[in-house]
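In line with agreed milestones, the collection of sequences with tokenised folds has grown. A representative record is reproduced below.
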Amino acid sequence: MDRTASGVILAGGRSRRMGVAKAFIAFEGRMLIEHVIDTLRRVCDPIIIVANDRDAYARFGLPVVPDSVPDFGPLAGLHAGLTAARSEVSVVVAVDMPFLDPGLLRAMIQAADGWDAVIPALSAEVEAETLRQKRAKDLDLHPLHAVYRRACLPSIQAAIERGDRKVNSFFPDIRLRCFTADEMRVYDPELRSLVNINTPNELHHARRLRP
């Protein structure tokens, strides 16, 4: 466990496509969020949950903080998590990622030396202006499976103030380290860590991934 890094679980989404709160969906005998918590406990301490319904998450015995700005999306959740974190470095993951790999997360923490953020990037690195214009999904970036420093907070705040909801909207303004697919496959050959579950079909597919 790396006590120099905090863990931040973003659980504030409305789960519109799933129809129910994703955090509490049963997956291999436990709730999705329990899989995430268990993996982060092997990697960092403390762990913070970012969610707007504190009562629903009180059962896990972890600090729960709301989004910095209501109804602004994951960028406001990221801002809230980094603000609440005790550490300079935080591992930030979404609540719907049941296949997180502790070895990969540790490697990303180590890769953060000298950088403000370490983001999985499955395609070639992109130019700053492209980062500003396009969504992370279109660029095959994974900002909700990443490592961030508190130094990102002013740039995140600026993005929120100008009303830019894209999670990657502040990337051109920070020192960004792209963690490549080849680097990830050393720890996670099939890149299952990046699987997230947004719909019933994706849940069905994820359940079939385990042997």
